[in-house]
Task: inverse folding
């Protein structure tokens, strides 16, 4: 036999032995982990909640979170489907989408779970989204971060929050700002002490696969997502996910073995809600040039697909071609008149194009047919303001913030609308809320002080006084942080 053939046979045998070894070692590791008790000495739940608040402040300072109600509600709905199959949890889980095209997802203490826009855009189904969210829920369930933090309890909460932000936001190319957070919080060796270990990842996979399977999702979809993330490193820098979530090869081998013992899971596939969410992400937040090219091609090749016209309408409106955008949304509406968001989107485009009367009738029609969609309510309120209907605008925007307190922009226009009606107390109060949510404590204090001076309503005065105390504390902290930064720059 030629030498080359002998070498090929040896390589093949070696590769088979290695694959078998990985499967056996992974199975053994999972067997060990399944017998291990949960950590007992983690930080308390109250400490974990406090740490999560500090961490959220770091995220909000450095990253843009997508606030689009449709996208946020959809991702949270997938997360809740998984959580519904779990026993009662000590935290109220919340899911966020970060406006960045990197491949990453992570969980923080107290059930805050983040996934990046880029990772969702790369997915093909709701099952893949559920796989990643289930894995991150597994980290929280197992209290991996809180347990590691407990071992570093000599650090204060603020330092730990900064450190965690540095690990999850800074590793693998997420930006210099986040890298500076890590450096300023802890030495490199201590930073690595909080990073996920191979055992953490495998345990989170085990728990996550069980959870998503119970929720009716296809567990093998987690493997396909990991394959995509792993493949990306051949064409780009190492994805952030691989540096914060190690042991991809072992994880894929385990999930493959797991799937052979769970053959009855029925995949949900690319649901309409998933496709619409992905369309909104690509059209409203992705690269404009690529999105235009993509949706032009989609409409050309699939002229009967309402989703193609919907996405094309969104990107056309974003790039300023509002007349053609309205035309595309009208086509989508004709093809799918029962889609609750299409009429609201058309009204939004009319508003942006200055066609106020058309916007008013379209947005009112959308609200009457499909209820109070947050975006529809917002643009209805703005249209009413532009037409001088300030009382109606105030009612629309008040109703919006009552049911959607995270819709930050609404507070600004609600304040403006109250100002037009001469109610300065409510005007400054709502502007104070807006600037507090925007983490601009100086402006928040200014407007809340004005609200206190101008209101005669004792109930409003009580709310303002409480908010003002919090805003003053935030202003003092902000000033101290600025002074510290100035000292570090010298």
Result:
């Amino acid at each position: 036999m030629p030498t080359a053939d002998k070498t090929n046979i040896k390589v093949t045998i070696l590769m088979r032995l290695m694959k078998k070894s990985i499967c056996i070692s992974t199975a053994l590791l999972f067997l060990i982990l399944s017998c291990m008790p949960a950590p007992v000495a983690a930080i308390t739940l109250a400490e974990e909640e406090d740490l999560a608040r500090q961490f959220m402040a770091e995220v909000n300072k450095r990253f843009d979170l997508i606030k689009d109600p449709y996208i946020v509600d959809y991702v949270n709905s997938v997360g809740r489907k998984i959580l519904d199959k779990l026993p009662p949890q000590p935290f109220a889980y919340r899911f966020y989408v970060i406006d960045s095209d990197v491949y990453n997802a992570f969980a923080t203490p107290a059930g805050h779970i983040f996934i990046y826009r880029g990772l969702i855009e790369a997915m093909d189904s709701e099952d893949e989204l559920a796989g990643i969210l289930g894995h991150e829920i597994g980290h929280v369930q197992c209290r991996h971060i809180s347990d590691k933090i407990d071992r570093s309890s000599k650090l204060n909460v603020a330092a730990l929050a900064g450190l965690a932000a540095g690990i999850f936001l800074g590793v693998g190319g997420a930006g210099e700002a986040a890298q500076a957070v890590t450096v300023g919080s802890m030495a490199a060796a201590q930073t690595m002490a909080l990073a996920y270990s191979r055992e953490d990842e495998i345990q989170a996979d085990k728990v996550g696969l069980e959870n998503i399977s119970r929720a009716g999702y296809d567990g093998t979809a987690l493997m396909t997502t990991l394959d995509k993330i792993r493949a990306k490193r051949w064409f780009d820098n190492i994805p952030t996910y691989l540096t914060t979530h190690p042991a991809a090869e072992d994880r894929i081998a385990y999930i493959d073995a797991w799937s052979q013992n769970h053959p009855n899971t029925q995949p949900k596939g690319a649901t309409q809600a998933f496709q619409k969410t992905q369309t909104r992400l690509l059209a409203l937040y992705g690269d404009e040039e690529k999105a235009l090219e993509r949706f032009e091609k989609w409409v050309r090749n699939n002229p009967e697909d309402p989703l193609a016209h919907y996405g094309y309408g969104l990107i056309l409106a974003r790039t300023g071609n509002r007349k053609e955008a309205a035309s595309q949304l009208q086509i989508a509406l004709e093809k799918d008149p029962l889609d609750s968001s299409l009429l609201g989107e058309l009204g939004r485009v009319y508003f942006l194009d200055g066609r106020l009367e058309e916007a008013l009738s379209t947005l009112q029609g959308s609200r009457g047919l499909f209820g109070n969609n947050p975006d529809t309510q917002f643009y209805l309120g703005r249209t009413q303001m532009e037409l001088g209907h300030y009382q109606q605008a105030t009612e629309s925007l008040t109703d919006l913030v009552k049911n959607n307190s995270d819709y930050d922009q609404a507070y600004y226009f609600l304040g403006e609308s109250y100002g037009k009606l001469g109610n300065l107390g409510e005007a400054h109060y709502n502007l104070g809320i807006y600037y507090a949510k925007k983490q601009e404590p100086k402006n928040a204090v200014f407007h809340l002080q004005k609200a206190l001076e101008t209101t005669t309503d004792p109930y409003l005065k009580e709310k303002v006084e409480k908010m003002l105390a919090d805003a003053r504390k935030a202003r003092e902290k902000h000033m101290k942080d600025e002074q510290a930064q100035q000292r570090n720059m010298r």
The beta strands are 94-98, 105-108, 112-116. The CA atoms of residues 111 and 286 lie 27 Å apart. The chain is about 75% helix and 5% strand. The radius of gyration is 26 Å.
